[in-house]
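Annex B. Sample input.
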Amino acid sequence: MFGQIKPYKGIAEVIDLFLTHSASNKRLLVVGRIKDEDYGEKIQSKVSGAANVILIPQFIADEDTPLFYGISEYVIFNYTSILTSGGAIEAFNYQKKVIAPRKGCLTDLVGENIIHFNTLSELKNILFS
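Annex B, continued. Sample output.
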C-alpha cells in the first residue's frame, strides 16, 4: 500500500487481515506520509511487533518511488470511497498487479493486471488463498 496513509484508504482493515494471517509467507508494506496523528498512532500501534507488516510512515521522494514498486508484487487499494486514483494508474505504469475494490473509477480498470473485490472477505481470499 503506497501513498498518503489516510482512513478512507482502508489501510487499517488490510493490516488486520495480515495480522490474522501472520503465519503466511506474505508481507504487507505500508508506505506513505501520515498527516492525521490519531490515525497514525492507531496504525503504528497495530503494526508494533508484527513480523509481516512493515510500516514506513514518511514521504517518499519521486526518485525513490521505483524502489518500492520494484520490491512489490501487488499494490493493494482498499478505498472506502473513491472518485479518482492516481495511485492505481501509477501502479499500472510500473506494471504492477493491482488489487482494488469494485468502486468508483476503479471499476474502469480492466486487464490482466487488475483484480477486483467487493468485500473484505473477498480481499482476504485473494490475498491468502
